[in-house]
Amino acid sequence: MTYFLVYLLLMNIVTFIEMGHDKGQAKKGGRRVPEKRLFMFAALGGGIGGWLGMRVWRHKTKHTSFVIGMPLLVALNCICVILIAIYM
Question: Rounded to whole angstroms, what are the CA distances from 41 to 6, 28, 88?
Fold first, then answer.
């Protein structure tokens, strides 16, 4: 269970950092992080990091797919964590 919690923590940190990196790249016109990658990180356990990244960096807040998708992925992540905790 400890490895699983470390994995979730790392995924959320990575997703949060990627959101901030993409925001920085957007501001300076650099190479952007693909939206698919941001969603993939969020789906693989980094939903809270993605949602926090949206709020802290004020990034992707006008994209309907992110405004709806990130909270749904947070909910999905929570359901998965609960199910894994029950069956471990």
Answer: 15, 23, 24
66, two tokens: 């992110």
- Over residues 7-49, the pLDDT tens digits come to 999 999 999 999 999 999 999 999 999 999 999 999 999 999 9
DSSP state, residue 25? H
Q: Is the pLDDT of residue 1 over 90?
A: no
Structure tokens of 10? Answer: 């790392």
From residue 68, alpha-carbon distances to 28, 39, 51, 71, 73 in Å are 27, 12, 10, 6, 9
CA 51 to chain centre: 6
